[in-house]
Amino acid sequence: EVQLVQSGGGLVQPGGSLRLSCGTSGFTFKSYNMNWVRQAPGKGLEWISYISTDSTTIYYADSVKGRLTISRDNAKNSLYLQMNSLTAEDTAVYFCARDRGSYPTSYFDFWGQGTLVSVSS
Amino acid sequence: DIQMTQSPSSLSASVGDRVTVTCRASQSIYNYLHWYQQRPGKAPKLLIYLASSLQSGVPSRFSGSGSGTHFTLTISSLQPEDFATYYCQQSYTSLTFGGGTRVEIK
């Protein structure tokens, strides 16, 4: 069974940092491109970042470029999102998602359960 | 960026109804269009990929059609578990989602 289990969310002050993790099982992690998608409270879905199987190709949405860093560890079957210089606009539920394709022809066939990041003083 | 516009933003329907949700792209995206279902408090679930291909395990009452700029998701006979929000997503260039369509119980 494919599983993506997320951890690392929480409350952080404006300007602070947080690292999200997405542990996976049930599939060959190193063979799949991965993504992060977020959803602000009561709002729609927003794709924010993509990483290729070997980490050589990375993309970010303009809204997070320069502040968020995606990475992966294929030996640990895990995906990460390092979040720096956070603002209230980053408050959202963050989902990791497995990619069935390859950017830009990406779509997401399995998702983590989501983790809430709240940015507030 | 390509803008994705869903309509309606919400609808009320009864169990057994045929329901259609529309997604329009601001430019041609060929068939790079995918549909997701999201129940409250849950992660999205892939229903349809590449406009009309049914994801494994998804009931056959769900279907997708369209190409270019106009796409539809149809639920042939609405079931109680189908009350949720539905999103389209384009993957022709960058990755953007529609604003969502909430399907509520009438």
Can you walk me through this structure?
The complex is a heterodimer of chains A (121) and B (106). The model of chain A has no long low-confidence stretch (mean pLDDT 97). Chain A is an all-beta fold and 121 residues long. Helix content of chain A is 0%, strand content 50%. In chain A, strands 2, 4, 5, 6, 9, 10 and 11 form a 7-stranded mixed beta sheet that branches. Helices cover 0% and strands 50% of the residues of chain B. Chain B contains no helices and 11 strands. Chain B has strands at residues 4-7, 10-13, 19-25, 33-38, 45-49, 53-54, 62-67, 70-75, 85-90, 96-97, 101-105. Chain B starts with a strand and ends with a strand. At the A-B interface, strand 5 and strand 10 of A face strand 4, strand 5 and strand 10 of B.
Number of helices of chain A: 0
| Termini Cα gap of chain A | 40 Å
Helix run count of chain B: 0
What structural class should be given to the helix and strand makeup of chain B? Answer: mainly beta
Q: Overall mean pLDDT score of chain B?
A: 97
Compact summary:
Chain A has no helices and eleven strands.
What's the helix and strand layout?
The complex is a heterodimer of chains A (121) and B (106).
Chain A (H helix, E strand, L loop, with lengths): L2 E5 L2 E3 L5 E8 L8 E6 L5 E7 L6 E3 L7 E6 L4 E6 L8 E8 L8 E4 L3 E5 L2
Chain B lengths: L3 E4 L2 E4 L5 E7 L7 E6 L6 E5 L3 E2 L7 E6 L2 E6 L9 E6 L5 E2 L3 E5 L1
Parallel strand pairs in B: 2-11
Antiparallel strand pairs in B: 1-3, 3-8, 4-5, 4-9, 5-6, 7-8, 9-10, 9-11
